[in-house]
Amino acid sequence: MEKDRLRRRTFLKILGLGSFLATVGLSIPITVRFLFPRVLFERPSTFIVGRPDDLNPATTGLRVYEDWKEEYGVWIVREGNRLYAINARCTHLGCTPNYFADEGVFKCPCHGSQFRSNGLNFAGPAPRPLDRLRIYINDDGMITVDRARLYTYKDFDRKGAYLKL
Questions:
Q1: Beta partners for 64?
Q2: Structure confidence at residue 18 (pLDDT)
Q3: What's the rounded Cα separation, in Å, for the pair 57 and 80?
Q4: Domain 46-164, CATH among 2.102.10.10, 3.30.460.80, 3.65.10.10, 1.20.1300.10
Q5: pTM (2 decimals)?
Q6: Rounded to whole angstroms, how far apart are CA atoms 145 and 138?
Q7: How do residues 96-136 score in pLDDT, each as one tens digit?
Q8: Contact 141, 51 (CB under 8 A)
Q9: Which sign does the torsion angle of CA 92, 94, 98, 99 carry?
Q10: Which of 9, 69, 103, 165 is deepest in the core (most CB within 10 A)?
């Protein structure tokens, strides 16, 4: 009887020690993760497009540059002597439209919204034109786009919504 009691005590001691070690072992990764801050790495809100001469000033009419669509989600549009940056995000549900140069329109693949090359909506469920981003010439003479500043349709004529070349 005494031997059974010792075996039971030994078993319970080992079980208790094992569960304690398992609990401590599982909490170590959580404790270590707590020591390191959670940081969200985002691209800077501004990026440089280039010099005004780089965007083919001899071109007359309208031209859409798609060089910055993949990385920054921005189209640069040159319309005569005006230059503006269009946010590549549909105003309906936020999908990324595609530009069809032969038709001169942006088409959203999600729900069929269509926008003219200057961003104005003319078909589909999009409630308003594509937003524009702040565009300006910085101190170094480079064209810079600031994705943190959006201009909606009613602000398209404000300073910063376009760049006069």
A1: 77
A2: 83
A3: 9
A4: 2.102.10.10
A5: 0.72
A6: 10
A7: 999 998 888 999 998 889 998 888 898 989 899 999 999 99
A8: yes
A9: positive
A10: 69
| Cα(100)–Cα(103) distance, integer angstroms | 6
DSSP annotation string for the chain: -HHHHHHHHHHHHHHHHHHHHHHHHHHHHHHHHHHS--------SEEEEE-GGGG-TT--SEEEE-TTHHHHSEEEEEETTEEEEEESS-TTT----EEETTTTEEE-TTT--EEETTS-EEESS--SPPPEEEEEE-TTS-EEEEEEEEE-GGGTTSTTSSEE-
- DSSP strand pairing (62-65 vs 163-164): unpaired
Q: Over the stretch 137-152, which tens digit does the pLDDT of each residue have? A: 999 989 999 998 998 8
